[in-house]
Write a structure and sequence with these properties.
heterodimer; A: about 110 residues; mainly beta; six-stranded mixed beta sheet; 10 strands; about 45% strand; globular; B: about 110 residues; seven-stranded mixed beta sheet; four-stranded antiparallel beta sheet
């Protein structure tokens, strides 16, 4: 089963680019890599998802090397409102049961300072 | 469009008591999930339902039962609550036929078992 490892915490300043890396050495062929953002007392919220190479949307970019054993979430020009916990998720959500697990990282607490 | 709703928001139980956590989604999603979130443990999948009438065990199913009542509703039951089940419980849903396997989360139920 894939195990995901990410830094416990990171600090940044407003306007900087933040890169959070997740390690998933045992990722399976069918697994996707998804990142979520969570604010206190709320459920996680989807940021971005990818399978390989690079994916970009209006809020973030996701870089996945060819071996897919890690991934990097990139947040451009963060603001105070980006202070949150960011989770890496590895798994095949289409087949979450039958021992095909969804493996969440423990989360990276990002603090954005003025 | 309320998304994913959960009731109750807070609950305190005594050891041995039973209760059912309710979850409903109005996005016509096929897949639904129950997670628990504990400090330092991240999110762990309890049960998963790919469609109405089907359920599968996740990573931590012991002590829980689920019912996929219809396409909209997915309930989680604790038959005999234990202090180890003190946690925040999240329900989520997703549409496996979308381009991304984005999960939409409810606001959570904070359960304390004394």
């Amino acid at each position: 089963l894939a195990k995901t490892t990410q830094p416990i915490s990171m600090d940044s300043y407003e306007g900087q680019e933040v890169n959070i890396t997740c390690s998933h050495n045992n990722i399976a062929t069918n697994d996707y890599i998804t990142w979520y953002q969570q604010f206190p007392s709320q459920g996680p919220r989807f940021i971005i998802q990818g399978y390989k190479t690079k994916v970009t949307n209006e809020v973030a970019s996701l870089f996945i090397p060819a071996d897919r054993k890690s991934s990097t979430l990139s947040l451009p020009r963060v603001s105070l409102s980006d202070t949150a916990v960011y989770y890496c998720l590895v798994g095949d959500a289409l087949n979450a049961g039958n021992n095909r697990k969804l493996i969440w990282g423990l989360g990276t607490s990002l603090a954005v300072n003025p | 469009n309320a998304g994913v709703t959960q009731t109750p928001k807070f609950q305190v139980l005594k050891t041995g008591q039973s209760m059912t956590l309710q979850c409903a989604q109005d996005m016509n999603h096929n897949s639904m999930y129950w997670y628990r979130q504990d400090p330092g443990m991240g999110l762990r999948l309890i049960y998963y339902s790919a469609s109405e009438g089907t359920t599968d065990k996740g990573e931590v199913p012991n002590g829980y039962n689920v019912s996929r009542l219809n396409k909209r509703e997915f309930s989680l039951r604790l038959e005999s609550a234990a202090p180890s089940q003190t946690s925040v419980y999240f329900c989520a849903s997703s549409d496996p036929f979308r381009e991304t396997y984005e999960q939409y989360f409810g606001p959570g139920t904070r359960l304390t078992v004394t």
